[in-house]
Amino acid sequence: MFAFFRAIVGIAVLVFVIATMLNVGLTQAPAEILRYLRNWRFVLRMLIANFVLVPLTMILILRVTSFEPAMRAGLLVFSLGAGAPFLIKLTQVAEHHLALGAAVMMLLMVATIIYVPLVLPHVVSGSTMSAATLTRTLLRQMLAPTAAGMITAQLLPTLARIVQPWVARLANLALYVVLAATFIGYYPNLADVVRSGALLAAVVFVLIAFGLGYLAGGGADHLEDVGALGTAQRNTAAGLIVATQTFSDPNVLVLLSLANTVGLVLLIALARFVRRDNPVHAAA
């Protein structure tokens, strides 16, 4: 039975990644995204926070803790990827402009595709995929569906409007299948991951990353809130691709799935908290 659900994980991850990125392309207008990306100071601060300070934070956490290699690898993979599609939902919960969330997500996602293949072999032991192969995989499964969705939305808007809700439902369903199949298929590994304390380290990391992203906002409320959420919400899609295709130890995938799930619940609560100082709520 465990083998059956483990086989489902690989298929469900592929469906989740492609459907999620296609949905992003179908729903986000390039012009709106570019408008926010013209703020080069914010862009630079977000890149430094996500690809310098956040990974360094995880390295420091691992310096003062003692985990077995699979747990260390899982935590490092968790820290490297940024630009999670769920940021758009978190932006909505925080009651900020969705295009801002999409702009931050696209910036970090594209940077992740370049950054992770270059850095992963140098900081994580046990990876079996070359940088070039990983780059091609990320481009094919993340950037290509996003571009296809944007092209469809521009050239065939009626078709895009019809297809998009179904693509979004498929992405959500696939994510639930990934989580359920991972927990069932790798049930014997769950106790090891929880007992190791690595999940607690991931929660601490998410909170620190939230603070770093908030500082990257530079004093502007909307940039602080979305910057914080975008930095703390690591890239589930990229992490799952790396975990399923470059590591043989299943504990890497199990830890990554648990960390993403717990982190997401925490960030939904934080998104509701930061919206309280939005003008509409402050005036109430």
Give the gist of this structure.
This protein has 284 residues and is an all-alpha fold. Helix content is 84%, strand content 0%.
Describe this structure in words.
With 284 residues, the chain is an all-alpha fold. Helix content is 84%, strand content 0%. The chain contains 14 helices and no strands. Helix 4 packs antiparallel against helix 12. The model has no long low-confidence stretch (mean pLDDT 86).
Q: Residue-averaged pLDDT, rounded?
A: 86
List the quaternary state of the chains. single chain
User: What composes the largest sheet?
Assistant: none
The number of distinct helices, counting runs of at least 4 residues, comes to: 14
What is the string of helix and strand elements?
HHHHHHHHHHHHHH
Low-confidence stretches: none
Helical residues, percent: over 70%
Radius of gyration: 18 Å
Could you say which structural class the secondary elements and strand pairing correspond to? mainly alpha
| End-to-end Cα distance | 54 Å
Describe the global form.
Answer: globular
**Count of strand segments:** 0
**Share of residues in strands:** under 5%
Write the SSE topology.
Blueprint: H1 2-27, H2 30-37, H3 40-63, H4 69-80, H5 87-93, H6 98-123, H7 131-155, H8 157-185, H9 187-196, H10 198-216, H11 221-232, H12 236-246, H13 250-274, H14 279-282
Helix pairs in contact: 1-7, 1-8, 1-12, 2-6, 3-4, 3-6, 3-10, 4-10, 4-12, 4-13, 5-6, 6-7, 6-11, 7-8, 7-12, 8-13, 9-13, 10-11, 10-13, 12-13
